[in-house]
Design a protein that fits this description.
By secondary structure, the chain is mainly beta. It is built from one helix and seven strands; from the N terminus they run E-E-E-E-H-E-E-E. Strands 4-3-2-1-7 form a five-stranded antiparallel sheet. A two-stranded antiparallel ribbon has the order 5-6. The two termini are 21 Å apart.
Amino acid sequence: MDILEPGPYVHFKGGRYDVVGEARHTETEERLAVYRSADGSLWVRPLDMFTGDTVVDGVAVPRFTRL
């Protein structure tokens, strides 16, 4: 089970975000990453997607990397 550490992260496209913590979906109890962009907007994404990889030019890379 992935543990999400609060703090600064960089997205594979270059954006910087601060992870606030983890939340649970009210209906499904799916674990969600809660993070803030530079403009102060709050975002959520399924934890598995946040901590998982994405493919760039045929190569798997982390979607977010902790700084």
